[in-house]
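[audit] Reproducing an earlier prediction to check determinism. Same input, same settings, fresh worker. If the C-alpha cells differ from the archived copy the diff job will pick it up downstream; this log only records the rerun itself.
[audit] input (170 residues):
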Amino acid sequence: MGDEISEGHARMNLAWLLSRRGKDTDALLQHERALSLYRLCGNEYAEARALNALGEKLAVMDRASEAVPFCSSALEVMERLGDTQGIAIVLDSLGYAHYRLGSFAEAVSLYERALPLREEGGDRHSIAVLHDGLGDASRRLVIVFWRARPGAERWKSWKACRIRTRQTCA
C-alpha cells in the first residue's frame, strides 16, 4: 500500500486546478479518484471533503440531482465528526445544489443553517459568499411566491418575505 492520503490530496488539488481551467469533466474524475483513495485508507474527514467536492462539481455542471446524494453523505460524516466548519461548507454546497434544482425554499433553509456556523468560524469572505447565496435564493423564492398568487395575495406574500429577509439579515 502506498501513500493514498497524499495521492488523494494531490488529486483534489489537481481537480481544483482543472476546474479553474474549465475542464470540469476531468476535475470530476480526479474528485472520484480522490474519494476512492480516501475510502481505501479509511480517512472519513478527507472522504467527506471529496464527497462534498463531487457534489459541488456536479451542481456546477447542471447535474444537481446527482449532487444532492454526495453532499448529503458528506453532511452525515461531518456531523458525525462534529466539524462545525465542515458542516457549514457542506450545507452551503447542498444549498447550492437545491438552488440549481429550483428548490429555493430548501436552499434558503440550508443557507440559513450554515450561516451561524460560518459566523462562528469568523471567515468574513465565506460569510459574504453565503449571504450572497442566501440573498439570491430568497429573491428567487419571492419571485416564485409572487407568480403563484393572484392580486392582493401577491402583496401579502411580498411583505411577509421582506420581513423574513430583514430578520435573517439583522
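[audit] rerun output stored. Observation attached for the diff report: The domain at 67-169 is CATH 1.25.40.10 (Serine Threonine Protein Phosphatase 5, Tetratricopeptide repeat).
[audit] end
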